[in-house]
Amino acid sequence: MMYLNWFVHGRPDAIRPTNEAIERAATKVDLFRQAHSSDGVDDDDESSDAAAWKDASTHVSSLGPVFEKRVQKLPGKDWYRLRRLLEVAYTISSEKMKKEGNENIAEDDILKNLTDAEVYTGIRSGSLKDQYDVRCFFLCPHDRMLHFATVDQRCEQMLQRGLLRETANLYVRGGLPDDSQVTRAIGYRQALEYLQRSDAKNDDHESLAAFIDNFATATRQYAKKQMQWFRRDDDFVFVPVRMDCEKEERSSEAANIISNMCKLSAANFETELTSSDGEENVPLSAKTKIENELQGKKMKFFMSKRTVLSEGSENFLALLKEADECMKMVQEMKSKVS
Fold first, then answer.
1. CA end-to-end distance (rounded Å), the chain
2. Most buried of the four, 164, 245, 277, 316, by CB within 10 Å?
3. CA–CA gap between residue 247 and residue 128 (Å, rounded)
4. Helix, strand, coil % over all residues of the chain, rounded to 5
5. pLDDT tier at 279 (50, 70, 90 boundaries)?
6. pLDDT tens per residue across span 166-215
């Protein structure tokens, strides 16, 4: 999502963080989130995340006026941008402390005296909109409950189509190093954690069931973050996608909406982006965005249910057999490199 933002709006002029700063910032954020983690890690149980965000954002704000202003401008609980502020802070303080005459200056003092220009100019470069008539669309499910159920089904399909086997083969060939972006991707990350678990044993129904549920939960969480991210971007038109019809029908309807909007004049298309909630004839995009956000309040009642990989079913037992084979491959390779 971040790279898409850069592609459309241009890359921000910000300091490139050091590897040390990246690692330190990630550790700091993880500590805040772990301190408020709970056993119920469902997609819309936000109480623990809200508490972690409050403590983490307060900490970043305390680093100095420049960072306090940046935190106040963050649109909601944007953990990426909060971590990015820490990366910048740690990078700048480290570089300044290395300069002659600054050896005895505390990091806190350096950060509290930073100016805006030393942190971020706010200037973006390379935006597509500088050269083209760019029209951006977000395919938004009209019913988030049905969408989450579809996400769960999709996760089960990915497992039936060989996600565990693919992960094991990649790991054995060295295609999933610990520090790679691919390894941290949803699906691979959960599969590796399951296959590499320290208490691994064959015919472990409980661990496989927990893995399936964790994979689906992580995917739903990411889907939710996508909706939150694009709701904050005023340059994206929200296109409703019906979840109560066949895939071909919903795809055709969404494609027709996009096609018609691309035929609009620049002025009329802009109306889809700038109309306020108070207007009598609220455009389709605004209606869709509002409804999507309102539905979020009901998502805490969503109940995840497996459809083809219910525990004890023939499909579940077939996946368990494959999982044991993949676990053996990964555990053997793990013992060789350790």
1. 35
2. 164
3. 31
4. 60, 5, 30
5. low
6. 999 999 999 988 777 888 899 999 999 999 999 999 999 999 999 999 99
* 62 in Cβ contact with 86 (< 8 Å): no
CA atoms within 13 A on the CB side of 337: 12
Element (H, E) at 121: strand 120-125
Whole-angstrom distance, CA of residue 68 vs CA of residue 62: 7
Contact call for residues 255 and 247 (beta carbons, < 8 A) = no
Would you mind telling me the total number of residues written for the chain in this entry? 338
239 contacts 288 by C-beta, under 8 angstroms: yes
Rounded-to-integer distance, Cα 299 and Cα 147, Å:
11
- Say if residues 67 and 85 touch (Cβ distance below 8 Å): yes
List the structure tokens of 193: 């954690």
Q: Which amino acid is at 152?
A: D
Take residue 188 and report the two structure tokens written for it: 């691979």
Give the residue with greater pLDDT, 293 vs 127. Answer: 293
Whole-angstrom distance, CA of residue 239 vs CA of residue 233: 14
